[in-house]
Amino acid sequence: MYLSRVEIDSTNRRKLKKLTHLGAYHDWVENCFPEEIKNHERQRHLWRIDDLKGKRYLLLLSSDRPDEGELLRYGVDGTVMIKEYDKFIDKLNVGQIMMFKLTANPTHCKDGKVYPHVTVEQQSKWLLDRAKGLGFDIIESDGVPSFSVINREWQVLKRKGGRSVKISKVTYQGYLKIKDLDLFKGSLLKGIGREKAFGMGLMTVIPKG
After folding, report:
1. Confidence band (pLDDT; 50, 70, 90) for 158?
2. Per DSSP, what are the bridge partners of residue 113?
3. Which of 134, 128, 130, 136 has the alpha carbon at shortest distance from 95?
4. pLDDT tens column, 25-56
5. How many Å apart are CA 58 and CA 50, to the nearest integer?
6. Which among 28, 110, 112, 207 has most CB atoms closer than 10 A?
7. Which residues pair with 84 in a beta bridge?
8. What is the rounded distance in angstroms from the CA atom of residue 43 to the CA atom of residue 127?
């Protein structure tokens, strides 16, 4: 597995003009794996857009190493970083406390239809309800879960035929404790929730302290 990152070139209007909806980002990610396209064997790639200190980054998790030239297509020269992820995953242990960041599409089903959670309370409960099944517990401080919703917005996805839909994008950040190592690794590598092809579901963690 590989975890890759590139700073998005936010000063280049020509590049930004093409990145106007989730489908464009999806295409960017897919084109980073030309061999998969050539062989008609596309795999699922987890990705998200991170905003850090006034800069925007594409973060990408993949089983194959991405093509650096394609990864740089909408990026800033010299900012491509590609790291092997397996070594990090192999060092994880039950009981470890980690700082996490997750961008997801929290939803619920009613009468056979899928609806987005729209309030912070609903979106927070969505993660708390799923944590144990994902292999971790949310750390609590004085009985209060140690995480917050740091961003939430509606993202546009243009479907074939010109139809556009809006997808709820929610970013969480906080602290967790690993409880079930296999489930936890699966959550990191397979993603969490719906719309994984469109920038949702990628959780990253770093050890606390």
Report:
1. confident
2. 110
3. 136
4. 999 999 999 988 888 787 889 999 999 888 99
5. 6
6. 28
7. 2
8. 26
**3-state SS class at 111:** coil
Q: What are phi and psi of 184, to 5 degrees?
A: -65, -45
Q: Give me 54's structure tokens.
A: 């006034």
Q: Determine the Cα–Cα distance for residues 67 and 53; give it in Å rounded to an integer.
A: 26
Quick one: CA torsion of 75, 81, 82, 85, rounded to 10 degrees?
Answer: -120
Q: How confident is the model at residue 176 (pLDDT cuts 50, 70, 90)?
A: very high
CA distance 23 to 29: 10
**Which of these, 93, 85, 97, 83, lies nearest to 188 by C-alpha position?**
85
Q: Could you tell me the two tokens for 40?
A: 């008609």
- pLDDT at site 122: 97
Strands, E, within 8-146: which ranges? 46-52, 55-62, 81-84, 97-104, 107-110, 113-116, 136-138, 140-141, 144-145
To the nearest whole number, what is the mean pLDDT of the chain?
A: 93
44/180 Cα distance (integer angstroms):
24
- Contacts of residue 192, Cβ cutoff 8 Å, sequence gap at least 6: 102, 104, 130, 134, 201, 203
Helix (H) or strand (E) holding 38: helix 34-39
